[in-house]
Amino acid sequence: AEYIALVLRICREEDPDALFLINDYGLERDHNQVKQLISNDNDPGAIQKNKLSDQHGNEVTAMRQRQRYLELIKRLTDMGYPPAAIGMQGHSGAVSAEEQQALYDQMAKAGLPLHITEFWAHEEDFGPEIQKLGNEEKEELIAAYVVQYLKNAFAHPAIDCFFFWGFMGMATEWKEGNSPSYEERPVLNAVRNLIHKEWHTHEHITTNGDGILTFNAYYGDYSLRYTLKKENSGVVGLTFKIDKQSGVPLVLKTMIG
Asked: Does residue 51 surpass a pLDDT of 80?
C-alpha cells in the first residue's frame, strides 16, 4: 500500500487531471483450469493441481482476491491516496449474471467507480460442453454472452467504463498469409447493433406550443438539429450531454433570429 500510494502521489503531481486506476483479475470466479491459468500469463510451473496458489501454497480464490482488493483500497483511502476507480479485468471465464452482479455489488462497497478493463470471451472459457456444438452455434453462443455481459455491466450503477481486451480477435477472422481481407464474426455485429442501434437514441420529434418535447434517452452525448416552421428558417444545431449529474427536465436555450 505504501508503494502504491507513493506512485499515485507522483503520478497526480505530474498530471492531476488524469484518472489513475488499480487493475486486477481473478475476481469473478476461481481459476480452476490449467488452460485458463496459462492464458492469463501465469507461470505454468506455479500451477498445482489445477489451482492457483500463492507463495505460501494457499489457494488463491476469487473471494480472497476481492477481500484483499477492498482492503488495499481502504488502506490507500485512509492514507489519502485512493485510486480514481477500481479496475477489474474480465479473464475469469464465462460467468453467470448472478456472479457478475455479486462481483459488482461487493466491489462497489469501496465507494469508487468500477471499470471493466480487459473483458474477453474465448471459446475455452465456456467449458467442454461448447465443444459439442458446431462452429456457427459456438459463434452465436459467444456473441449472445458478450451482449448479455455488456447489458449486465451497463445496468449496474457503479460501472463507469467498459474496455475489451483483444476485441478484434473475437470480432474478425483474418485470412492467412499477407492477405488484408477478413470476415466479420457474429460478435462484431452483435456489439455493433447493441451500441449503435439498441443503445442509440435517434428521434424525430415536434415540440409543443411551449417549445417542450419529451423522450426516453440513454446517458451520453447528443447532437440536436432543428428547424422552425417558417420559410427559409434553416437548420439550427447544438450539442448537449445527459449523464448522472444532469438535472431533468433539461432546459436548452437557443437564440431564434
From this structure: no
